[in-house]
Design brief:
Elements: H1 15-29, E1 30-35, E2 42-47, E3 50-55, H2 56-65, E4 67-70, E5 74-79, E6 85-90, E7 95-98, H3 105-110, H4 112-127, H5 133-154, H6 162-168, H7 179-182, E8 185-190
Antiparallel strand pairs: 1-8, 2-3, 4-7, 5-6
């Protein structure tokens, strides 16, 4: 009977494991963010004959959640993009309502599965060292911004009033000057 002898040695090199756990820890410290952020500019808006500026983040909030207010009233003239002059009166005390047209929350909720799949694929790349935690967070944030823009372009929102359509010259919701659309950005931050 012949007995084979062999020697087995295992060398533990946990360098890769330490690098991976470091990247996972960094990833857990990051946030992926998309939307319209405070300080992203202002826009001139008209309320009848009155002009004022509004922060883009405030404008986004108004459309995202809707609002209503009591109008002080007055007579207003508007020249539409097609050149039509419209004169209209708003009675003092009239409640003006802007309905909720969620484009941020709804885009992310409707595409939760897409975002989870993208995260999973990117995490696989992190394991094999093809990508860093910071790159994962940025790619997810960029994807979120794309989804929000796509939601606006889909136009699936509460319809505009007939007066608003006449004043704007079209029935596209959330797209007028395209400033709101262009203000959608992505960024990564630190978890607090």
């Amino acid at each position: 009977v012949e007995i084979m002898k062999f020697k087995l040695s295992v060398k533990d090199n946990d360098k890769q494991w330490k690098a991976l756990t470091k990247q996972v820890k960094r990833l857990n410290e990051l946030t992926a963010e998309a939307g319209i952020f405070a300080g992203d500019g202002r826009m001139l808006v008209k309320d009848g004959d009155k002009k004022k500026t509004i922060n883009m983040a405030t404008l986004a909030y108004i459309h995202e959640f809707g609002t209503s207010y009591i109008h002080p009233g007055g007579m207003f003239t508007k020249i539409t993009p097609s050149g039509e002059t419209i004169i209209f009166r708003i009675k003092a005390g009239t409640r003006i309502t802007i309905p909720q047209r969620s484009f941020i929350r709804s885009a992310l909720i409707e595409n939760e599965h897409d975002l989870l799949n993208a995260s999973s694929r990117l995490f696989s790349d992190l394991i094999i060292e093809k990508i860093t935690s910071k790159e994962i967070a940025q790619k997810i944030a960029d994807r979120m911004a794309e989804l929000i823009k796509h939601k606006i372009l889909s136009g699936q929102f509460e319809p505009l009033s007939e007066l608003t359509i006449r004043l704007k010259g079209h029935n596209k919701r959330l797209i007028d000057s395209k400033r709101l659309f262009r203000s959608i950005k992505s960024r990564i931050g630190k978890r607090q």
